[in-house]
Amino acid sequence: MLAELRMEAILAELEKEQSVSVAHLCQVTGASEATIRRDLNELARRGKLNKVHGGALPIRKEFHGEELNMDEKRQLHAAEKMRVARYAAGLITDNDVVYLDAGSTVMHMIEYIQAAQATFVTNSVECVQRLPLRGLHAYVLGGVLKPGTLAIIGAEAVQCLKQYNFTKAFLGTNGIAVDPGFTTPDPEEAMVKRTAAAHARDTWVLADSSKFGIITAATVMPLDGARIITDRLDDRRYLEYTGIEVV
């Protein structure tokens, strides 16, 4: 069987089964394991599938139009978010000037921050309520309060951000995909995130593994605009575009 025909057969089998092993593909195509592995590498390089140990999975790419409120977000993937938040908090040192975005994972960072001399700026009502309770010095942006997520957004928030130069920024995201990158449902919130990243020396996006392969309405920035902290990475292609810490 010609290589292109064999790869078409692999993709057809993957579409039918939703997960395939190398051994199964050998039976379907009559090719050797070495040949199948080469084909899987090539198809992964083309972005046609996600190569995993012993086989392949389809590329997950879903469009989400609506945004959950903060209470709903907190209930999803809670253990994974706490691991990510704990690791991110450990990156903060005394004398840092830190931007904390409005996001359920970012908010959990506050429980683990040990850098008592750092300064914090946030657009999150919930973050600015919690930071002083930990004895941390905090500023909150002015702007329009967004119901549901309690994020401060809009032109005034963007102008406030432009006054700062952050050593570190920690952002949330609703989706991560190779194309178009980091996304969120609200264009105004995307602008706030983008501006914060532009004024930070180092930017991290905190995302549990469910965010990969998800696309929402507004692009924040391409993948090379920030590093990612996550609990699991199944699709190794993302490593070609940005640094990723798996915790």
Overview of the molecule:
The chain is an alpha/beta fold and 247 residues long. It has two domains: 3-59, Winged helix-like DNA-binding domain superfamily/Winged helix DNA-binding domain (Arc Repressor Mutant, subunit A), CATH 1.10.10.10; 63-246, 3-Layer(aba) Sandwich (Rossmann fold), CATH 3.40.50. It contains nine helices and 17 strands. The chain has a seven-stranded parallel β-sheet with strand order 7-6-5-10-13-16-17, sandwiched between helices. A three-stranded antiparallel β-sheet has the order 1-3-2. The model has no long low-confidence stretch (mean pLDDT 90).
CATH topology grouping of the largest domain: Rossmann fold
Extended strand count: 17
H and E string: HEHHEEEHHEHEHEEEHEEEHEEEEE
End-to-end Cα distance: 42 Å
Biggest sheet, spatial arrangement of strands? 7-6-5-10-13-16-17
What's the layout of helices and strands?
Blueprint: H1 3-17, E1 20-21, H2 22-29, H3 33-45, E2 50-52, E3 55-57, E4 62-63, H4 70-75, H5 78-89, E5 97-100, H6 104-108, E6 119-122, H7 125-130, E7 137-140, E8 144-146, E9 151-153, H8 155-161, E10 166-172, E11 175-177, E12 181-184, H9 187-198, E13 200-206, E14 214-215, E15 218-221, E16 227-230, E17 244-246
Parallel strand pairs: 4-14, 5-6, 5-10, 6-7, 10-13, 13-16, 16-17
Antiparallel strand pairs: 1-3, 2-3, 8-9, 11-12, 12-15
Helix pairs in contact: 8-9
List keywords for this structure.
single chain; 247 residues; alpha/beta; Arc Repressor Mutant, subunit A; Rossmann fold; 2 domains; 7-stranded parallel β-sheet; 3-stranded antiparallel β-sheet; 9 helices; 17 strands; 34% helix; elongated
